[in-house]
Here is the input.
Amino acid sequence: MKAAAIPAAVRKVLAGQPVFDLHTHLYPPSFGTPVANATGPTDPWGMMLWGVDELVTYHYLVAELFRALPRGALAPEGFWKMGKIEQADLVWKTLFVDRTPVSEACRGVLTTLKELGLDPNERTLARYRKFFAAQDPGKHIGRVLKLAGITALTMTNDPFDDNERERWISGVARGDGVFRAVLRIDPLLLAGTRAAEKLVKWGYRINPGDEGETLREVRRFLGDWIDRIGAAYVAASLPPGFRYHVTDDDTEAWVGEDALREAVLPVCAERNIPFAMMIGVRRGVNPELKGAGDMGGRADVASVATLCREFPHNRFMVTMLSREDQHELAVAARKFPNLMVFGCWWFLNNPSLIEEITRMRMELLGTSFIPQHSDARVLEQVIYKWEHSREVLGKVMAEKYAGLVAAGRRVTIDDIRADAALLLKDNALGFLAG
Here is the structure.
């Protein structure tokens, strides 16, 4: 293939390549939908978030709203007292009408509306609301996933969340296998006392005076829930201060190390499923903004390398929130085949950073990484996240192929297809399968 033909060929291949979305916070209608004016029954505590009001009140946009509003015009407390529709109207007017919506979060909403066949130039949300009100949630999911090119995805399933736990206990249905479960265990590692109280309530023998029995019961809990939900992997979101085997006397030991070493990793190895670590989030830096008030920080890649070395029979999937950690993490992945680097997470989900990080990873790791996951919490977000990510990935792939042609190596359409399949689907599925 001639170098001039490569960019178009890459775009075409990527457009048709199915995606396995490795990390989302999405759920099927069986988990309940809170959209009150949609077709069919609704659930005020429903977990399937969708529709224009959810899109424009997502925490990315809430944080941006308070930068755009005149100082003192509205306190966060007043915003949270508003209903969802009133909040959405304020965000739309402030960020999409009164200002040019150039941020990635705003552009993402506009891309989503366009791909759904809607005019992104409306001055109010009225026509969008009418469109979504006419949708059947189950059919709408199929259309959205088709537009995003997603054939399967993983949920985020937290048994410590009472709302979700009750749904699993009552036998919630997941449908046709598109939605795969992931066991999320943050409280077990970060809030031991609260987690222990819940485990006792659920009938597990947590005995502060007998560490051995306690760890056995934690392992039993993990096994029970892996089996109950059919978990594809176990996951935790960890703070920048996460450390494993700290040797610095000035650094406090991390509270979850025993549970990680003696319970989580043995159970993952026994069940042959990976453990995913999303490292670098500082929760509640500005508590007034609630979910929009989190921030990122530098993580410790050496701890990840230590885990990979000491637990060679475990598989680790790792993404980090700080841009500054990305090179060291990619270098670590060169040393440990049981480490899979994945995605450009949260604050890194911006095209300029995705391009930089993806280019660096490809230069260090070839095609043996997972370039992106959507991290979507609102269903329709997958449309823009994968459209924008394909655009950036295509640019990087075409650049690397041009370099090969310049070096005298022929690049064929089969090469491009094979690489696209690895990057968007097969690396993830292969690592999950072991």
Remarks:
- Strands lie at 19-21, 150-154, 179-180, 183-184, 234-238, 275-279, 281-282, 295-296, 316-320, 339-341.
- The longest strand covers residues 150-154.
